[in-house]
Amino acid sequence: MKLLKSWGATGGGLLHLTVLLSLAGLRVDLDLDLYLLPPPALLRDELRPPGGPARPAHALSPFPTSGGWGGAGPLHPKARELDFLGPLEGHLLWEVRALGVPFIPRTRVDAWLVHSVADRDADGTHGLLGATASSAGGVGAGVDGGSQAAPGGGGDPLAAEEEEEKAAAEPTAQVAVSGGRASQENEVLREKCESVARSSRQEENETESSQEKSLQQQNNEDKNKTADESDWEVAKTTESRKERHLNGTDADLFQLLSSQPEYSLEGVSLEDTPFQSTISDGMNSSAHNVNLSQAISHDVNLHEAMLLSPNTFRRDPVTRTSQTQEPFLQTLPGTNLTEFHPPADNQMRNLTSQDLLYGLDANIFDEINLLSLAVEGFDPMEVSFQEPDSDSGLSLNLSHNTSITKSNSYSTCNEDAVSYTSDLKNLSGHDLEGAVGGYCPEHSMLCHMDHSYEAGFQDLVFHNHTYHLQPGVPEPTSQSFSTSGKSQKMNRYFNNTDKNLSRDERRAKALRIPFSVEEIIRMPVDSFNSMLSRHYLTDLQVSLMRDIRRRGKNKVAAQNCRKRKLDIILNLEGEVCNLQARKKTLEREQAQYNKAINIMKQKLNDLYHVFSRLSDDQGRPVNPDQYILQCSHDGTVFIVPKELVAPGQKETQKGKRKNRS
DNA sequence: AAACAGTGTCATTTA
DNA sequence: AATAAATGACACTGT
Fold first, then answer.
1. Which residue is nearest to nucleotide C4 (CA to C1')?
2. Which partner from A99, A344, A573, A644 sits 20 to 30 angstroms from A295, CA to CA?
3. Between A631 and A51, where is the model more confident?
4. In sequence order, what are the residues at sequence separation of 6 or more whose Cβ sits closer than 8 angstroms to the Cβ of residue A294?
5. Is the pLDDT score of A75 beyond 90?
6. Do residues A503 and A648 share a domain?
7. How far: A390 CA to C6 C1' (Å)?
8. Is residue A100 domain-resident?
9. Considering chain A, what percentage of its residues have pLDDT values greater than 90?
């Protein structure tokens, strides 16, 4: 465990710890981030927009939460992922991540964690954990969430209604937190968890070095077994190893908390919190009134949350087997994670652990898909959400809170980290903007890592708490919450992304598709299909690749179509010009011909006049039937008797006379 | 702020 | 039937 950040005056702190769990041969790495935020009272006052309503304190969480701030939204129908993110009291954002296996959904817990130096100095109690979690299924969202649903991230009442309708339609989709209302089922599950935790603690006593060795060995085995894995999977293994290395020297979180007096939240008193117990007390000692596990209730225990469904990687059975057969056990020292309350939600009761786990797969992929949605066209303020550019058939009317995290030890700053969340509807504009960095400026100082293409995604919905800002980009403030408009939001989302990449390219990279967009688009259909079959690609990857291919081809087709249309227009315009010019030419010719005709007519009239006045030797008018006019080449006109003209010539002359008459 | 062009995307039709 | 191409329509963005 490592304390990454101490409290700022108004900001939050981040605690990070890595936990390895093993249950029934299933090894799970948990990457825990504890986000410590000031109490809502402080945050509300500080973050209240001018003239605007107070923002729920838990809306400051860098995490999008299921059900929305205020519990307005149900989980997505497919979201049977184990999502601990009941916005408990909203004070402590406890992010639990699984690292050892691919596509482990991030599980999170929001709870209050209040830590006061003054109070600790006064009475020796420091951290407070409040955990009156509320169900994510729209039941409520904690102290602030339940009563302030509208102002929160899911504040749109229409969106809330819509989500509630969906929740009613598919009640089993909800896996949420139900804090402080553990049912009997919860108790049973909790007992199971405790038993597991006890065994875990036994193994925990093993030396750290042996664990590291085992872990390293496991990683090597995984790597060997999954030689055919795609690059991202291999990279993930390496990254996970590195992450463990980074976390290997982490001290006990709560010992650290109790031993570091500087870790405090200024201005927060213990009286503001629902629990009065130090963190270390709560986590390390069951004798204390409140411990973390009791303070935070879950619908499912962490073991269940971390266990992979056999269906999770349908195309990677080798890896799955290698992962599940590793009897490696390590638990959070001093933390009885298994005491998390089992689900109290009625909908959750109907779900077995296997059900939950089996639901992970689709949720994960859906979530990945939703990532692109969030990046692409998500408008948090819109009631009805629909993916603007996907015909994959995946519903985007999601309110579930699922996420996948692949992170390093510092989890939020890993450039290779890929985190996805589908909790888009619950990402209100406030949430999103807060995620960009408005509320946790300290986070930007925590991580100075290079930001990859996913940076924008992470900032948006991936819980990358770096919240770095570009130079010159003002940090969002409480006033910025009033900013609206999809364009502005999306621009802000991508402040840190590689703008040179197209959206599909970003999506492809986000999904770690091992092919370039150009390849996907350009390659023949046979090659494309064979490529899809040769590689281990998830449904979402395949779907995205097909979408990319379709969009890419259509884009080219549209460009060609427009170019062709433009060419046609230009050609038509040229043709019009040509025709106009020809028309003028013809008109000129016509005028010339008319003029010639008129001249000819005039000559004929003159000839007729002359001919009418001709007379023979006796002075009698010449009979036109007996004489004809004959023009010589020099224009001289002769009066010739018809009998002197050749027969053919005579006929010609007759015709001329007839026409003239 | 309105108008406009360019572009991407989707839905649909056509080849 | 599957696929690509073509195209109208729409939304978005930048000028």
1. A553
2. A99
3. A631
4. A131, A282, A339, A341
5. no
6. no
7. 20
8. yes
9. 4
- Inter-residue contact A69 to A87 (CB < 8 Å): yes
Tokens of A399: 């309110």
Query: Residues A15, A127: contact at Cβ < 8 Å?
Result: no
Q: How many domains does chain A have?
A: 2
Distance A562 CA to B8 C1' (A): 12
Mean per-residue pLDDT for A263-289?
36
* Distance CA A549 to C1' C7 in A: 19
Task: Determine, yes or no, domain membership for A304.
Answer: yes
**Shared-domain flag, residues A83 and A203:** yes
- Which residue type sits at A302? L
Segment A214-254, tens digit of pLDDT: 444 444 444 443 333 333 333 333 333 333 333 433 333 33
d(CA A355, CA A581): 79
Domain housing A630 = 614-660
Q: Count CA atoms closer than 13 A to A81's CA, side-chain side.
A: 38
In angstroms, how far is C2 C1' from A376 CA?
29
Q: Are A642 and A628 in contact (CB under 8 A)?
A: yes
* Residue A165 placed within a domain: yes
Residues A195 and A315 in one domain: yes
Indicate the burial class of A580 (C-beta count within 10 angstroms; 0-12, 13-18, 19 or more). exposed
Q: Are residues A498 and A637 in the same domain?
A: no
What integer pLDDT is reported at residue A624 of this predicted model? 76
Say if A512 falls within a structural domain. Answer: no
Tens-place pLDDT, residues A386-445: 333 333 332 333 233 333 233 333 233 333 333 333 333 333 333 333 333 333 323 333
CB-contacted nucleotides of strand B (7 Å): 7-11
The whole-number pLDDT of residue A564 equals: 84
| Residues in chain A, total | 661
Last residue of one domain, picked from the residues A473, A507, A541: A507
Three-state secondary structure of A244-296: HHHHCCCCCHHHHHHHCCCCCCCCCCHHHCCCCCCHHHHHHCCCCCCCHHHHC
Query: Of the ranges A22-31, A307-316, A380-389, A447-456, which is most confident?
Result: A22-31
Closest CA to the C1' of C7: that residue is A561
What is residue A29's three-state secondary structure? strand
Amino acid A554 CA to nucleotide B9 C1' distance, rounded Å: 8
- Single out the residue in A507, A535, A565 at which a domain terminates: A507
Number of C-beta neighbours around residue A643 at 10 A: 8
The H or E element containing residue A558 is: helix A539-612
Footprint of strand C on the protein (CB under 7 A): A 486-487, 490-491, 525, 528-529, 549-550, 553-554, 556-558, 560-561, 564-565
